[in-house]
Amino acid sequence: MENRPINRTTIHSDMDKIDASSTSPVTQIYNALKPPHPPISTSTEKREEHNELYNINPPPKTPEGAFPPDLQSAVNVACHHTEAHPMAVALHLITYFAAHVGQQRHVMIGNEKHPLIFYGLLVGDTGRVKGTAESQARYIDQLGTKILKEKFGYQPPRTLSGLSSGEGLIQSIQDPDNDNEREGVQDKRLMITESEYANVLAQGQRGGNTLSMVLRDAYDGKMLANMTVNPRMATHPHINIIGHITPEELSGHKSFLTQAQNGALNRNLIFSAKREKPIPNPRRYSSQEAEALSKWYAEVIIKARDQRPIDNAFNDEGKEITMSEEGLKIIEAEYIQRESDLDSMPRILSYLASRHRVFIWRLSAIFALMDYSDVITAEHVSQAYKCMDYSLDSLRYLLKTARQEAQQEEAASLAERILYAITFINNGSGCTLTDIHKHFKNKLKSSDMEKAICTLLESAPPKIEEVVNHSKNKRGRRAKIFRPTSTKKTN
User: Fold this and answer.
1) Which pLDDT value is given to residue 227?
2) Are residues 61 and 182 in the same domain?
3) Residue 435 CA neighbour count, 13 Å, CB half
4) Same domain for 343 and 224
5) What is the pLDDT of residue 11?
6) Rg of the chain, C-alpha, whole Å
7) Rounded CA gap, 399 and 403, in Å?
8) Within a 13 Å sphere around the CA of 231, how many CA atoms are in the beta-carbon half?
9) Looking at residue 180, what is its pLDDT?
10) Pairing between strand 233-234 and 224-225?
11) H or E, element range at 233
12) Dihedral (CA of 134, 136, 139, 144) sign
């Protein structure tokens, strides 16, 4: 069978009649479509403006420029006159693509090798967004895979669903055991779709169930093994998962807090999506659209796989996708800021957002490959951060943390103002709570001020210190004296 790369120029020449000014057949197809929605009415604009002003927990907004051009065009085509949400379609396509890439590509974060393993979790109302996005993306995946099978004899990743135990997952990709004549698999790629992800969360509550632990290790690319009577081992796992769940099932699940704390949930890029408008009769792809989408998808897969039609985890070391200097500068700046932001977030939100660095590296590498590049550019990194911010806004919306974050930000601001006052009063030599009240003209609530004092005392390192005052006040009590930690103690 002929083993050669798909010629992108040839593909484009087939579509020149649509738009000669464009270099992408998918973009050409989308440019030929009518605007996806009629103009928004004045009443709708006023309603949206009202909601934005008074809704303390607004739903996330679809960002502009969050994907490479061809992926963006494919998403636009899939969403045109359908009920599919663009972020939901993209989440599926990204996960499917990562499964196809397998062990052929990876990124290095320090000394750690990271295959492009990707978990996505789509949160939406029942029957309104999740299945629609999956069907649109799955159709593109099937079209592209069909081309690769016919041209190269390509073997796609196996598809599974119904996760129930860690042992069962290991068995599905177990290594061959020649001594025991046990058959195994050479291709460790799995694409798992869990339409009822609440069942996966429920497994974490069952005593002795190792599914959560195995999924964490699989995401990190570690060797999977069980210690049962019939031990099995799976090296080089490449498991990709797309899960569906409703908002109530996610945040209301008994194991939600535990799974957020133990690192199971924060290995998922969580997107919230709602149906933007009802479409009674969604359209089908035209033959031109189907052809352009399938050729584009097949092309990026086979190029990312370095023209290899078969995946063998034991023989393929894979190639590193390198990070450009410009992209690295963005990551360095963003990482410091986002780590600082985690400290001021509500605890549950900080748990779920704490794996941002790994997501950015893997997601920006996926975007580079879907943009026909072996180098991650600053643009790919910026696109990944837009997706990360959409996920963060999704979590804020689902957990309703915006009001709590606003209150914490106000408390942090008050703590900084009080720190300045303690530094200013008596030239920083020390002051009492009464002195602080007088400085603010008795306009502060005692409870708010005491919380701010505690925040300053418990900071790491502490920003102020409490000093024992041996003199007593009018009531015969020893007054508490506070001063900045930088002030030298005197005898």
Assistant:
1) 74
2) yes
3) 20
4) yes
5) 34
6) 27
7) 10
8) 5
9) 62
10) antiparallel
11) strand 233-234
12) negative
Q: Is residue 1 part of a domain?
A: no
Burial call 174-189: b when 16+ CB within 10 Å, e when fewer: bbeeeeeeeebbebbb
One DSSP character per residue, 334-389 reads: HHHHHHHHHHHS-HHHHHHHTTHHHHHHHHHHHHHHHTT-SEE-HHHHHHHHHHHH
| H or E element that contains 225 | strand 224-225
Are 35 and 130 in the same domain? yes
Q: What is the helix (H) or strand (E) element at residue 427, kind and residue range?
A: none
Is there a single domain that holds both residue 432 and residue 391?
no
Burial of 122 (0-12, 13-18, 19+ CB in 10 A): buried
Query: CA–CA separation, 64 vs 311, rounded Å?
Result: 35
Predicted local distance difference test score (pLDDT) of residue 179: 64
Separation of alpha carbons 275 and 409, rounded Å: 32
What residues of the chain score a pLDDT lower than 70? 1-23, 29-30, 32-56, 178-181, 229, 316, 402-406, 470-476, 487-491
Which is it for strands 158-160 and 189-194: parallel, antiparallel or unpaired? parallel
pLDDT score for 217: 95
The size of the chain, in residues, is: 491
Residue 425 pLDDT: 93
Q: How far is CA 292 from CA 2, 39, 428, in A?
A: 22, 28, 70
* Pair 460, 432 in one domain: yes
CATH assignment at residue 423? 1.10.10
Q: What is the pLDDT of residue 205?
A: 74
Residue 281 burial class via C-beta count within 10 angstroms: exposed 0-12, middle 13-18, buried 19 and up: exposed
* Same domain (yes/no): 37, 128: yes
Whether 380 and 421 share a structural domain: no
Q: What is the pLDDT of residue 270?
A: 97
- Check whether residue 206 and residue 271 sit in a common domain: yes
Domain at 287, CATH number: 3.40.50.300
**What domain range includes position 207?**
8-400
pTM of the model: 0.77
Number of domains in the chain: 2
H or E element, residue 121: strand 119-123
Residues with Cβ within 8 Å of residue 438, at least 6 apart in sequence: none
